[in-house]
Description:
Blueprint: H1 12-17, E1 20-25, E2 28-34, H2 48-64, E3 72-81, E4 89-99, E5 103-111, E6 117-127
Antiparallel strand pairs: 1-2, 2-4, 3-6, 4-5, 5-6
Amino acid sequence: MHHDTFFGIHVPFLSLLGLKAISLTPGQSEIAIDMREELGNHFQALHGGAIATLLDVAMATAGRSLHPEVGVITVSMTTHFLSSPKEGRVTAKGKVQRAGRSLVYCEGEVLDAQGHLVATGIGTFMVRKEKIIRP
């Protein structure tokens, strides 16, 4: 049994990054990461890959909240980077805009510790027909 679950499922990559599950309601999620040196780029700011991962996971988790037994996978994602946080907690929020039987359309935003917008994104997620493996 894994003790490091992310809203009830074990995702090793998220554990590696240190993502924290904050809240999950139907169609919405909030997650966070605390800035640390290993997540930085050559400007000592949060790496764009970490920011994109925050957006992806926040939106996918919001989508999964509507399909908890089978989950979702990312089909496409567009990200707009607006700033680069250098310290503190960075939070991402995902929200379902439209959900169908096979596709879920979401939007997301990433905020720095002061509440300033870091990035925005939209994503399309496919509903998986396989059951999620639970820890």
